[in-house]
Amino acid sequence: MEYDKILPDIIKATDSKILLVVLDGVGGLPNIETGKTELETAHIPFLDEMAEGSSCGLTIPVLSGITPGSGPGHIALFGYDPIETQIGRGVLECLGIGVPLGRDDIAIRGNFATISPDRIVLDRRAGRIATEENQKIVSLLSEKIKEIAGVNVSIYTVKEHRCAIVLKGKGLHPSVSENDPQKEGQPLKPIKALDSQSEKTAEVLRKLESQVMEALKDVDTKAKGLLFRGISKLPDIKGFSEKYKLHSACIATYPMYKGVAKVVGMDIIEGCDTIESEIGALQEIYNRYDFFFLHIKKTDSYGEDGNFDAKVKILEEADTYLRNIKKMKFGAIAITGDHSTPSLMRSHSWHPLPLLINSPYAIPDDVKRFTERECAKGILGRIHSKEIMYLLLAYALKLDKFGA
What we know:
Layout: H1 2-10, E1 18-23, H2 38-41, H3 45-52, E2 55-60, H4 70-77, H5 89-96, E3 106-115, E4 120-123, H6 131-144, E5 147-148, E6 151-159, E7 162-168, E8 186-187, H7 199-216, E9 225-232, H8 240-244, E10 248-251, H9 255-263, E11 267-269, H10 275-285, E12 291-296, H11 298-304, H12 308-322, E13 332-336, E14 353-358, H13 372-375, E15 381-384, H14 388-395
Parallel strand pairs: 1-12, 1-13, 2-15, 10-11, 10-12
Antiparallel strand pairs: 2-14, 3-4, 3-7, 3-9, 4-8, 5-6, 6-7, 13-14
């Protein structure tokens, strides 16, 4: 990326602090009845106030028209090219819950799902089973399935319906297709090696798929099988400290986002399970770091559930607690999302996201509300998410002049 060619010569460490707030899946589409998006419907006076005093615009996570996963969406926000730097969801999930990974290990993100005996996926999230039920199922499977074809198999609870799987053994490679059809009512997709090196991994996963279904068929649970996603290995990338001269911290409730932060070398702040506790953690660690990544998850979850009203409500809740950041001094603040998750679509989408950057050196524009249509009027225009990090460095006065 062009930034990497000049950044080492112009970046400098300073005392100013940067805050990146990511409202996961924040972008939406107009409600059929009202013609307003979730952001346009929500009462979010603080975010609107911030937008009015900031430079605003829209962001494109990857490329126009491309729907991003959460991994590419976040790696772009951290200033890495999401196409050149691809991090598998399995790696993120494992690192997010503190599972150590070796360079040759295969990491997989698993969804417990309701699957019929004839292999039709009835519910991709098994009714979002409770984490406690997940733990019981993982304990059962861990007792019954320890090794397949000479490969060690470990399964870990993540949260609700999600789990993480690690394969350890010789000759494993991650180029394997997923079995998740991405829609209910569809059969499991066949697990195939995408290159000759990955055939052993595909064989292990095909056997694991069958053994999990067999182990759960008579158990009183909606979880009747596993969807394998994000089959991957650890990447080799430059971390935040080396790249930006920043001492950085991640505040998130969900393991996957801790995982992507850990990949780039952020410290993970544990013990947060609500937006209120996340803001409390930010206040507590304020003096120890100069970059803070604050992630709010439920905006995305309710979008995926198709629950427009709940997404509106969580935006309003986030707005209430985010007001507390006014009590802290930051050289630059960005508020945006990693991708859009319109309730209307019940999924991630390609739609551009609202962005505000607040700084003593930002020019306020004509934007009055933190919404998709308002931010489209902003002075920043339409930019790629990977540019946000460099704008934050500039607004926080951490970049010297380039060239003579």
